[in-house]
Amino acid sequence: MEKGKGNMQKVNRTKEGELISIVIPVYNAEAYLKNCLDSIISQTYSDFEAIVINDGSTDNSLGICKQYTIRDKRIILINQNNSGVSRARNAGLSKAKGEYITFIDSDDTIDPRYLEILYRNIKSAKADISMCTWKCDGNKFYKDKFNIKRWNKYQTFFSMFKTKEIDGSVCSKLYRKKCIENLFFDEKLRIGEDQIFAIKAIEKANEIVFQDIPLYTYFIRNTSAMNSKLDSRYWDVIYRAEWLVAEANSNLPEMYGLFKKEEINIYVTMIIRDIKSGTEASKKIVDYVWTRVKNTRCGEYAKYCNFYEFLRFVLIKYFYNIVCYIVRIKDRWHTNCIK
Predict the structure, then answer these.
(1) Which residue range or ranges hold the Glycosyltransferase 2-like domain (predicted)?
(2) I need a surface site. Which of 65, 136, 185, 207 has the fewest CB within 10 A?
(3) 154-163, long-range: CB within 8 Å, 24+ apart, which pairs?
C-alpha cells in the first residue's frame, strides 16, 4: 500500500468531524480517472479518505493514482494484481477507517456537494443509508428538487424495482459502516455483484433517507460489460436474477412478486440484446432465459410491472419470431442509411 505525501489542495470545505471512506476500484481507466479524482478532492466535505485500488491496470492508471497521492494526502493507494472489481472493493472495505462508506467507480464523477449532502441527510434522519439520484454523462443537470424521503427497506425496494426512483447499484449511496459490517462483494461474480451487496445492505438498514438530487454522474462506456453482446459472463446476470427470487423467498416474502418481476425483466432484456446483436452469441444462455419467460404467466407478471414492461414481455413471449424479424430489418435499414 502506498500513501501520498504533501499538502492537500486548498479549497473551501466544511469539516464535520466524522470520517467518510470512499472506495474507488480502478482498472484501465486512464481516460476517465483524473476527472473522477478531481471531483473527489473538490468535495465541500473535507473529512474523508479516498481508497483507490489499482486492480492490475495495464495502462497509465497506476501512474495517475500515484500522482494524486502526492497531490492530496487523503488519497490512499492499494496496488494489487488483477483480481476483479469485487476483490478490489473488498480490499478497500478492509482498509476503510471511516464511520461511513461510499463507493465510486473510476469512470464516474460526483458533484462537489455529494458527501456534504448525503452526510447531512444521514445524520439528520438518523438513517443507515443515504441515497441520491444520478445522471448520465452529457445529460442536463436538473435543478435541485430538495424533496427528502425517509423509507423502510420495503419502501426502498419498491422505489428501486417499481418506480425506479433509485438505481440498484452500490454507488450514489452513503452507508453507515455498522450497517454493512460483515458484508462483502461476491468475488466469483463478474457482473451484478454490486446490486446483491446493495440489496443486502438495504435489508439490514432500519431507515433509509433519499433526496431527489442528481449528485452522481455515471459515464456509460459502449465497451462496458452491460453494453456488450451476450457471453459467458451473463451466467452471472442469471445468477443475480435467480438470487433475487431466492432472497425474497427466504427473507423478504412481501417482496416476492416485485423481485420475480425484476427477474423476468432481466431475462427479457437479455433476449432483446441477443436479437439486436444479430448473432446467437450464446445459445445456451438464450434458451435458458427464454424457457423462464415462456413459463411465466401474464397475470402473475402484470401485477407488478408497468405498461412498457408488460408490452415487452408479451411481445417476447408470444411474438418472438416477429420481433426478431422487425428488429433485424430495422437495424439493417439503419446500417444502409448510414453507408
Answers:
(1) 21-183
(2) 136
(3) 154/252, 154/254, 154/255, 155/208, 156/129, 156/202, 156/205, 156/208, 156/210, 157/199, 157/202, 157/252, 157/255, 157/258, 157/259, 158/258, 159/210, 161/258, 161/259, 161/261, 161/262, 162/258, 162/304
